[in-house]
Amino acid sequence: MAHQSWSVLDAPNPTYLWTQLLVEELVRNGVHTFFVAPGSRSTPLTVAIARHPEAESVLHVDERGAAFAALGVGRAARGPAAWVTTSGTAVANGLPAAVEASVDGVPMLLLTADRPPELRDTGANQTIDQVKIFGDYVRWQADVPPPSDEVDPAYVLTTADQALHQTLRAPAGPVHVNCMFRKPLEPVETEASVAVPTAVDAWARGTEPYTHYPTPAPSPPGPEVDALAEALRGTEHGLVVAGRLDSTAAADASQRLAMHLGWPLIPDLTSRLRWGGGKGPGQVPYGDLVLTSAAFREGHPPRAVLQVGGRFASKRLRLFLRDSAPEVWAVVRPDPSRIDPDHRVTHHVEAAVPAAVDALVARLEEGPRGTTWRDDWAGASERAGAVVQAHVQESDALTDPLVAALLTEEMPSEHALVAASSMPVRDLNRHAAPGGTGGPAFANRGASGIDGTVATAAGIAEGRDGPVTLLIGDLALQHDLNGLALLQDRPVVAIVVNNDGGGIFHFLPIREHDEFDPYFTTPHGHDFEHAAALFDLPYHRPDSPSALRSAYAQACRSGESALIEVQTDRATNRQVHDRLEASVERAVEEG
User: What is the tens place of the pLDDT at every residue in 116-148?
Assistant: First the structure.
């Protein structure tokens, strides 16, 4: 976008002085992407962003989708993007993304416009109570008054600095800056003026933030590591479970810990360890499927569990660990909030994973290089994987597990993966090919909603400045059709598995009841060819595994976005899963 000549203090009126100060300070703190939804009351913010030479504005008509796109940037970049919207219900549309960011520890800046105090609670148009509208889901919030010559403009700078500090410090999450504006909202000259104090003038001549905060970092490992090391000493039958990990350093440290202890490692889809090959002995990428075997579960309860990073997707694994009642269950992550839905955790180490691993390794003797325990887990995973691979190689029909395995086999190394909630994240976690070479995987598993998934994928492409593969279900895509507009300028290859409704409900007990269809199956009878055309996206509808490989490879080579629709049957999908799991169970037990 072309910018006109711009100076931060060269403002036509006090409102624009404040918004230009705000945008400049955010940019100095590393916020460069602003997702802007159209609106009148937010005009001063929008114009200040448009005029700033280093601020990238991304326009999206849907406030909810724009908020999820900002969330996606935060996931990928581990630094916040800004969501900018006007007053009224537009603000309320940011709540789903704010909830996800809060629960899953993703930095995000909610920058909203509001009416001035004299218009609040008066019946003024498009005026609602926006103060604390996001409740406890934000880490911090500020209700910024209308610009006034009675308030030092340095207030704007210190507010921006505090907001950025709060969104990044552990636990990371969304912050809300609610900005009141009086008319005129346009950049017109007025008689009002604001004196610029010496400190702000000096700041304007530089490039540094007004207030410097220390780089947010979790506390170093403390006495809790000593207690954990003592509890683990001499334990052979343990498991390392890798949940969501946000860096290669954390993933490598988790692998190093498992190797040092001589324990199996069960990696979640979002752990950066689920595929890539060459990760060393003891890998259990098909851990969820291994646990289909009751005999294996009964014969392999762990005495200790080291859970590194965030939550993991496998319910089967969670219930197995709960029922195993390990003597030690430790969670190691740089966040004070608990991940303990079954109330079994005995130790919580609040520290960066690499630092905590280094401290544990220094305190614990190296475990045996090879044990029956570790070999049992790794061997069972290999046998489960062989069943999945046989299904991929022998099936001439497109099935949900096949799609998950095939995509992760074929995904280029430069692509990141985004998994929608419901069946896609489960199928990928269970069936993804461990030898794939694709990039990191992301999923909105904080609140596990299906809304905003396309926009999140677009935000991840924006945040990492690279291509993305998205696996999404038909209902999730219907929830975010507007998000397809964001794919026009960002390379996202979206694969939608269309089984005409809510396929996951075929796996729940409600399927045995009369109300199951249509209240839970929610059939819609539509395909997405016209949706792709509406947003100028290349569209493919492969009807075989080989056609899917070809369409996906073509889309990836193009370097542009595309929509690939895979049509399956919900009832058949349940049968395919049942047959696969029965085969896995036999293979695990016969091995």
Answer: 999 888 988 889 999 999 999 999 999 999 998
Name the least confident of 1-15, 121-135, 385-399, 515-529.
1-15
pLDDT in tens, 303-327: 999 999 999 999 999 999 999 999 9
Question: Is the preceding omega at residue 171 within 30 degrees of 0, hence cis?
Answer: yes
Mutual angle of helices 63-77 and 453-464, in 10-degree steps: 40
Per-residue pLDDT at 279: 66
* Beta-carbon contacts of residue 489 (< 8 Å; ≥ 6 apart): none
For 586, the enclosing helix (H) or strand (E) is helix 570-590
Q: What is the mean pLDDT of residues 9-15?
A: 94
Q: What gap in Å lies between CA 72 and CA 492, rounded to an integer?
A: 13
384-393 — which CB contacts under 8 Å span 24+ positions? 384/286, 384/289, 384/290, 384/584, 384/587, 384/588, 385/285, 385/286, 385/434, 386/587, 387/289, 387/580, 387/583, 387/584, 387/587, 388/286, 388/289, 388/431, 388/580, 388/584, 389/433, 391/580, 392/545
Q: 548 and 566 in contact (C-beta within 8 Å)?
A: yes
Spatial strand order in the sheet of 56-59: 56-59, 33-36, 82-85, 108-114, 174-180, 140-144
Rounded CA-CA distance 437/576 in Å is 26
Amino acid of residue 185: L
Query: Residue 7: which of 41, 51, 50, 42 has the closest Cα?
Result: 51
Q: DSSP assignment, residue 583?
A: H
State if pTM tops 0.85: yes
